[in-house]
Amino acid sequence: MSRVYNFSAGPAVLPEEVLKEAQEEMMDYRGCGMSVMEMSHRSSMFQEIIDEAEADLRDLMGIPDNYKVLFLQGGATLHFATIPMNLMKNGVADYIITGQWAKKAYQEAKKYGKVNVVASSEDKTYTYIPDCSDLPISEDADYVYICQNNTIYGTVFHTLPNTKGKTLVADVSSCFLSEPIDVEKYGVIYGGVQKNIGPSGVQIVIIREDLLREDLPDYVPTMMNLKMMADKGSMYNTPPCYGIYICGKVFKWIKSLGGLEAMKKRNEEKAAILYDYLDNNTMFRGTVRKEDRSLMNVPFVIGDKDLEAKFVKEAKAAGLENLKGHRTVGGMRASIYNAMPIEGVKALVEFMKKFEAENA
Ligand SMILES: *Cc1c(COP(=O)(O)O)cnc(C)c1O
């Protein structure tokens, strides 16, 4: 067996301890004679798996009792529609556009109501987070929407926007569990798990109870009715059982390392190694305004397409995979999620130094 350092933006690296445990339990989950994949979702064994996953997530994030935790499907992309369908009472929402995922969410929401762009960083290819301390928030906005960590561009909201009392909704797909957050500042926190938690196919939605509504428009599909999904404990239909099981293991892995404070420390340490090098070399440079840099996704460029292609190719040969930037941005991007070991980041920087020396 030989494993690479996988810098993919998603699906992405998972903790080896988790993969090994899943391997050990593959044929016979804890003496029940079958794999979790083969188990009825109505069995007590699976109910235990999902209940324990929820309890561990609540514990990790400090989720208050008046918030529901849902394990759903459809990708974060489906929730671009689920959010307006469930939250628009007045039919109005304000969006902050800091990248393609926020823009896609905005375009989807427009199908269901009046949607205002109250801030954007599109003017500089999303390389910064706009000042959101005093935005023209709509009087009748049902919510204010952000994409908290911009996977493609490598920016993050270090400070949440001032929503002037309106409900904050955040897509946290690429920064889920990367550091502690104050859940009570949000109405909805949601994201796909394939960036920082588990295998693709599971979305986690954390929603304040008073936002769940009985009086949804008739056109809302049952599978997108968050009240229904909450009432049914995420099991109106068959949930993504195996994915939820792996997420549960990742929650335990994070707890074993000391929880989200420890994750933050670890992630800051890793990111600093890479950013310090980017700020102090002659070949590579980061593309994001310093104060808005993400701890999770680090885009960088050389500024010479041929040399960048050579870099990605030689890095791959050296066991450093998936460093090519997003197809719409070019250059390189290193995603250094929770499960990327510090050794991986050190190996990347060593390789960059070598490449710099050889190609100067
Ligand atoms: C990857 C990503 C998405 C899209 O996720 P899907 O599961 O492919 O729908 C949405 N938002 C953010 C921030 C992402 O990183």
How is this structure best described in words?
- The mean pLDDT is 97.
- The protein is globular.
- The protein starts with a strand and ends with a helix.
- It is built from nine helices and 14 strands.
- The longest helix is centred in the C-terminal third of the chain and has 21 residues, at 259-279.
- By secondary structure, the protein is α/β, with parallel strands linked by helices.
- It binds pyridoxal-5'-phosphate (PLP).
- Pyridoxal-5'-phosphate binds at residues 10, 75-77, 101, 147, 151, 171, 173-174, 192, 195.
What is the fold's blueprint, element by element?
Layout: E1 5-6, H1 16-24, H2 44-61, E2 67-72, H3 75-87, E3 92-97, H4 100-109, E4 114-120, E5 144-147, E6 149-150, E7 155-156, E8 168-171, E9 188-192, E10 203-208, H5 226-231, H6 241-256, H7 259-279, E11 285-286, E12 297-301, H8 305-317, E13 320-321, E14 332-335, H9 342-359
Parallel strand pairs: 1-13, 3-4, 3-5, 5-8, 8-9
Antiparallel strand pairs: 2-10, 6-7, 9-10, 11-12, 12-14
Helix pairs in contact: 1-6, 2-6, 3-4, 7-9
The protein binds pyridoxal-5'-phosphate.
Pyridoxal-5'-phosphate binds at residues 10, 75-77, 101, 147, 151, 171, 173-174, 192, 195.
